[in-house]
Design a protein that fits this description.
The chain is α/β, with parallel strands linked by helices. The protein has two domains: 2-111 and 233-297, 3-Layer(bba) Sandwich (FAD/NAD(P)-binding domain), CATH 3.50.50; 119-229, FAD/NAD(P)-binding domain, CATH 3.50.50. 24% of the residues lie in helices and 25% in strands. It is built from seven helices and 16 strands. The protein has helices at 11-22, 57-70, 119-124, 131-134, 150-161, 179-185, 280-297, and strands spanning 2-7, 27-30, 75-76, 81-85, 90-93, 96-105, 109-111, 142-146, 165-169, 192-194, 198-203, 210-215, 218-223, 226-229, 233-235, 265-267. Strands 1, 2, 3, 4, 5, 6 and 16 form a seven-stranded mixed sheet that branches. α2 (57-70) links the parallel β2 and β3. The chain starts with a strand and ends with a helix.
């Protein structure tokens, strides 16, 4: 039986594993995807919220994975965790029950959806766009980015640099992204900002043709060849089946050392904290706190 079972191999989960091994604890990491890294895999540019780190998300992922490998920690990929018993401290992985002395939930989050007509059909057609992959393909074409946070602004900036005609649609009256990000966006001319603007329908039966929005009580059609929805993350906690207390947004409730109401069951990263306050640096700190708390309690 391992001292710690970690569910998720994003920055929070991997940080927990690194600190656990440094403290002499045995640990097993389970990742549902085919590659580790979580949200790190989406950061193609230089990481800005981790002081002293001057590499991309995938580069940082590879460095941490290499460190874990040298410590003898295995990340078991394609591991679907379908259930958890917080009392017995067991999880069900690919249909098999696994026990641990402690469990750390670091499942992160998935992109939040708008929940409007046409959205599901867009995703079903495979029309998922990211500036890190598709910016050059959108040169001269209209692109709509929905959202006002860091990721929305970063996507708008990259598409603008690639030569796209970008419209940034935000429900609020101000961008919520960090000032450094918004200042960077304004260095590239050509972005149209639509504030207090609510998306109501994605238009197009064979491919995306536009986005209907409501502004000042009127519905308007914005033409687009691509729509990028970046409105935050939905915590990946549905597998818990109400076994742990969640807040209204689906995040796991914890105390100041990230322990849930059940002794030995912890939650960190985007599964626990609002994406507004999430960062790679914060995930690393949370992993350290949890590993040290477990070491002390054992």
């Amino acid at each position: 039986m391992k001292d710690i079972l970690v569910i998720g191999s994003g920055p929070a989960g991997m940080a927990t594993a690194v600190w656990a091994r440094r403290l002499g604890l045995s640990v097993q990491v389970y990742e549902q995807d085919a590659i580790p890294g979580g949200q790190l895999n989406l950061i193609k540019g230089e990481i800005e919220d981790y002081p002293g780190v001057d590499c991309s998300g995938p580069e940082l992922r590879d460095k941490i994975v290499h460190r874990l490998d040298s410590m003898g920690v295995e990340i078991v990929l394609n591991s679907h965790v379908s259930d958890l018993d917080p009392v017995q401290r067991t999880i069900v992985v690919n249909g098999h029950q696994v026990s641990g002395r402690n469990i750390v939930i670091a499942t992160g989050g998935r992109p939040r959806k708008l929940g409007i007509p046409g959205e599901q059909e867009m995703y079903a057609r495979g029309e998922t766009y990211r500036s890190s992959v598709h910016a050059s393909q959108m040169k001269g074409k209209p692109v709509i980015v929905v959202g006002g946070g860091d990721r929305a602004v970063e996507n708008a900036y990259q598409f603008l640099k690639g030569g796209a005609h970008v419209t940034l649609v935000h429900r609020g009256d101000n961008l919520t992204a960090r000032r450094g990000m918004t200042d960077l966006l304004r260095t590239v001319p050509g972005c149209e900002y639509l504030f207090n603007c609510t998306p109501t329908r994605i238009v197009g039966s064979q491919k995306v043709e536009g986005l209907k929005v409501e502004m000042d009580g009127k519905e308007t059609l914005l033409k687009a060849d691509a729509i990028v929805i970046t409105i935050g993350l939905q915590p990946t906690t549905s597998f818990l089946h109400d076994k742990l207390p969640l807040d209204t947004e689906g995040r796991i409730e914890t105390n100041q050392v990230y322990e849930t109401k059940y002794r030995g069951v912890f939650a960190i990263g985007d599964a626990m904290i609002s994406s507004q306050f999430s960062s790679i640096a914060a995930c690393g700190g949370q992993g350290m706190v949890v590993a040290k708390q477990i070491a002390v309690s054992m």
